Amino acid sequence: MSVTAPLGFRAAGVDAGIKRGDDRDLALVVNDGPSRAAAGVFTRNRVKAAPVLWSAQVVSGGRVGAVVLNSGGANACTGPLGFQDTHATAEKVAEVLGDSAAEVAVCSTGLIGERLPMDALLAGVDVAAAQLSRDGGLAAADAIRTTDTVSKIAFRRGEGYMVGGMAKGAGMLAPALATMLCVLTTDAEIDSEDLDRVLRAATAVTFDRLDSDGCMSTNDTVLLLASGASGVRPDLADFEKVVTAVCADLARQLLVDAEGASKAIAIEVVGAESVEDAVTVGRAVSRSNLLKCAIHGEDPNWGRVVSAVGTTDAAFDPDRLNVAINGIWICRGGAAGDDRSKVDLRPRDVTITIDLSAGPHSATVHTTDLTAAYVHENSAYSS
Amino acid sequence: MSVTAPLGFRAAGVDAGIKRGDDRDLALVVNDGPSRAAAGVFTRNRVKAAPVLWSAQVVSGGRVGAVVLNSGGANACTGPLGFQDTHATAEKVAEVLGDSAAEVAVCSTGLIGERLPMDALLAGVDVAAAQLSRDGGLAAADAIRTTDTVSKIAFRRGEGYMVGGMAKGAGMLAPALATMLCVLTTDAEIDSEDLDRVLRAATAVTFDRLDSDGCMSTNDTVLLLASGASGVRPDLADFEKVVTAVCADLARQLLVDAEGASKAIAIEVVGAESVEDAVTVGRAVSRSNLLKCAIHGEDPNWGRVVSAVGTTDAAFDPDRLNVAINGIWICRGGAAGDDRSKVDLRPRDVTITIDLSAGPHSATVHTTDLTAAYVHENSAYSS
């Protein structure tokens, strides 16, 4: 289903020869309308890949007719020539579709610092355009994989409309092991300002709260395209719920597939003075290599949780901190609580609950453990 | 030589039975004067161990007659009873030495969240006091080891005076794999205000620029004690140089002994608008797990350097960034530069030079690579 679940979208995924081997590496998603309203959120890294610079400009116009995505090269840190490559890619798509390049978004993922093989890529656009179909969502999701072991797709039904999506990568919106790319589609009728508002709200509580290794890519992009083909103008609050559900589903898939991870860790911060404080604490804890190693070793080391909390400026009193791991409150009032031997850390899913005893707010940040496999995957080859 | 290199100090290190096995685990350092001026810097973690809270108070008085240190337990997150344990330890030392507890500093390192075995510890103080000697510096340095594979000691001669020191741990002043504890001694004649100024300046450019894994301990402590026994009142600028040299020597030893590390990485940031910017960039790069894995794999992945730089708010233009690894400028003007195959990453020491092209300032931050051995050491047991 993926991006072609909603009416008005066609997609394709092909092997253009950008990556070595026979894997698909080029995806095309086309919005057949009648509307082509769109919104996007991009990496906050100040070093932005050429396709991010290009697509941010396209999206600022509020309209996207097509998205072309490639794996096998990030086109980041490639200078003015790299930007020309992105521009040429958009022009090629526009030419093949009889459209305007100004409404063609481009996404790339792969190694930083190398130019893309443009001959292969441009020839691949022809092949992809010829294969565009209402069934092409799965092939497109497959084509954007890099170290992903599976394709990530999701969809949800709203009241008379549909939201679909595909994603690749592992990590937070500002990740991670690999770039995160995500294209969301809907056949709801909705203007680009509302799309933008909904997308920002949805990503803020999903992709933005994934933090697998604290690293931030140069290429992260999440696009939301509306065809209006259902003719249904949704209730905005409902629409936000549906888009958020699709984002949460994809975010969960990214987390579970994070490179080398053996545990999916939810860091649930409660009793915070503000949501910002809760997120700050969750993120600090999610970035503690020591804690991530302990969870990998199935050691309920609450001292490493507390010492990560202590590095933040969130409102809390060290003597009123409570920490539970998988439901056992092993730290109470900043000191040892229930018997740590009661904590069962064998399941893949681990929940660490941190009660700041400072207010009514909460937030959950998701991360993974730190494993020798992560080190191996990220030291044994360039990515 | 260690802390007993300067005149006026005695030390001892004994097996008090705090740690399992026959290793030494209790150290005592005594300042026989005539002066007992002192200064200290402590962890910035808001969750502070009992001995940190105690010693900060002692040091605020400007005088320290003795320092008692234990491995085998951090006495952190132990509540009011843990603080009473620290107090009782200081009282015991004071009693044995015929001194005041208000001038006895206490340092602890080991697992967080567990009470110390006070019977063993207090009995150990008697044994240590009986063994105090001018030759005890090595035994003291040995007794504060946790996962340290070697004792860390250093000393330097000034004009008519000496500065010595011992340390344990691996990481920055706000570390790390384990707590960092450091006791520096001098027989120079110098008041506590000047000691404080010198110690802050010296640690700011040494221990503060070590960042092995971005984690911050609850127990980090650096103390500087002056006996005045040489009768020499040093030139302050010279004294700062000597103290900085001792700190730099110890910091280097911590780095080389960092848990599981196979590379010592110097991140040299040049062309910065300010020293703060240079440190910010160096620290961000030193905390990139992806880069640390790449260096472990001997992959000169400058894209991971640049994308870590891009997460900071330092002044720089992405198109003017230059990056060298071991002297080869593989990124010039934000894009690929010299041939990356020229970079030799086989030596243990790796230098990454980042030219921000934004000003005249520079700073170097030291870190290590991220290895499967690090993961193993930090997942296989509680620490």
TrEMBL record, chains A, B:
Listed InterPro entries: Arg_biosynth_ArgJ (IPR002813), ArgJ-like_dom_sf (IPR016117), ArgJ_beta_C (IPR042195)
Site, as annotated: Involved in the stabilization of negative charge on the oxyanion by the formation of the oxyanion hole: T109, G110
Main EC class the enzyme belongs to: transferase
Tagged with keyword Nucleotide-binding: no
Keyword annotations from UniProtKB, A to Z: Acyltransferase, Amino-acid biosynthesis, Arginine biosynthesis, Autocatalytic cleavage, Cytoplasm, Multifunctional enzyme, Transferase
Localization, UniProt: Cytoplasm
Source organism, top-level taxon: Bacteria
Annotated Gene Ontology cellular component terms: cytoplasm
BP GO annotations: L-arginine biosynthetic process; ornithine biosynthetic process
Reactions catalysed according to its record: N(2)-acetyl-L-ornithine + L-glutamate = N-acetyl-L-glutamate + L-ornithine; L-glutamate + acetyl-CoA = N-acetyl-L-glutamate + CoA + H(+)
Record-linked Gene3D superfamilies: ArgJ beta chain, C-terminal domain, L-amino peptidase D-ALA esterase/amidase
GO molecular function: L-glutamate N-acetyltransferase activity; L-glutamate N-acetyltransferase activity, acting on acetyl-L-ornithine as donor
Chain sites annotated for binding substrate: T146, K168, T179, E259, N378, S383
Biochemical pathway: Amino-acid biosynthesis; L-arginine biosynthesis; N(2)-acetyl-L-ornithine from L-glutamate: step 1/4; Amino-acid biosynthesis; L-arginine biosynthesis; L-ornithine and N-acetyl-L-glutamate from L-glutamate and N(2)-acetyl-L-ornithine (cyclic): step 1/1
Enzyme Commission number(s): 2.3.1.35, 2.3.1.1
Subunit structure: Heterotetramer of two alpha and two beta chains.
Role, per record: Catalyzes two activities which are involved in the cyclic version of arginine biosynthesis: the synthesis of N-acetylglutamate from glutamate and acetyl-CoA as the acetyl donor, and of ornithine by transacetylation between N(2)-acetylornithine and glutamate.
Family stated for the protein in its record: Belongs to the ArgJ family.
PANTHER family reported in the protein's UniProt record: ARGININE BIOSYNTHESIS BIFUNCTIONAL PROTEIN ARGJ (PTHR23100), ARGININE BIOSYNTHESIS BIFUNCTIONAL PROTEIN ARGJ, MITOCHONDRIAL (PTHR23100:SF0)
Protein name in UniProt: Arginine biosynthesis bifunctional protein ArgJ
